[in-house]
Structure prediction request, 291 residues.
Amino acid sequence: MDKFESLYAFTQVVEAGGFAAAARRMNLGRSAVNKMVLALENQLQVQLLHRSTRRVTPTPTGTAFYEKCVQILADLEEAELSVSRLHGEPRGLLRVNAPMTFGTMYVAPLVAEFMAQYPQVRVQLTLEDRFVEAIAEGYDLVIRIAAPTESASLISHSLCETKLLLCAAPSYLERHGTPQTPADLGHHNCLGYGAAKDQWRLFGPQGEVSVPVSGSFWTNNGEVLAIAAAQGLGIAQIPQFIVAASPWASQLEILLPDYCQKTLAVSVLYPINRHLSTKVKLLTEFLQQRL
Prediction:
């Protein structure tokens, strides 16, 4: 049995938290992955994993061995690239996760452009509006629109910044009037992102302002929020990147331009064990340059 395959199988089990999940990542049967890890434990004569019906976790020895394994596998990838005829050209599968609307508008076209430049790379791009655990879910790169994340297991790089803009359709403003101050928002139908909120925090010339709000509609997708606002349902806080690119943007007016939420960082994150991967580094740099 190939030792490097066994090392890779072991790292996948640790990152996925179980044999079945690791097998799905590797497109192998669960028994095959289990056999490789058992062979590794027998060869080393140590127990690397605690096995239970709910989850598989590394032993203290397994944790130390895992850290060595990811370094060895990263070094192997670099060594293979250095001697290939496509010297330094990235190859293999990249698993990327991004928010739905930002991914559709910006990431997907750039990924296609990146793949045209590096034809040996395969990409699995997953778009969804939820918090993703990069390591546990097996992603090589995760793009987030949020406050910067500090984690000992993740490396973060800034891609760009965006703001939330107050927007409404002219048809809504004709019926209900145009707010002149943040306090006026309390008398309007304020559409929400995520769960229903009773406060909006805005920042303007006098600093932070907390405004009580209420509304009849909320959603977990920014473009859906823009559509609802464009159809005259109410006032919404819409990310600047959607206002700039959405076909619905021409039907929206920006309100109280001196007031907005704090700037949000758009960042790319990847597990620390991917820091030597050529394809991860090149895609990160490519996104930084283009965004």
User: Anything to note?
Assistant: The mean pLDDT is 85.
